[in-house]
Amino acid sequence: MDDPDALATLSALAHPARLAAIRALVRAGPEGLAAGALAKAIGATPSNASFHLTALSEARLVTAERNAREIRYRVAFARIGALIDYLMNDCCAGDPALAACCGVARRGGP
Question: Domain 3-107 is in which class?
């Protein structure tokens, strides 16, 4: 990931509904969520959710799979990981004592 790619990815996340959608999809795991369930989870109308999911899809943060009439969205975990790695790449100037923050962030807790 480079600066322009990171900026585009962060820009796609810079909206409350989009951030809520990503968080809901992360919680859903690899199974993802059907479009209607995702819209309900983030408190959006189906058309509003679709608008935001399109932006997330263009940033390659989510994937969509159609099965008959249902569209199922999944978070692109590798893309999220690439963004986090990009942001944390130069963390703490290589000082192992300071770099412990990165391990905490990646494990998901204190």
Answer: mainly alpha
Residue 59: helix, strand or coil by DSSP?
A: coil
- Residue whose entry in the numeric block shows the structure tokens 């909206």: 15
Number of H helices, E strands in the chain: 6, 3
pTM of full prediction above 0.70: yes
Mean pLDDT of the chain: 87
Residue type, 5: D
Measured between alpha carbons, how far is 80 from 57 in angstroms, rounded to an integer?
A: 12
C-alpha torsion sign, points 109, 81, 103, 95: negative
Q: Domain-by-domain residue ranges, the chain?
A: 3-107
Contacts of 16 (CB under 8 A, 6+ apart): none
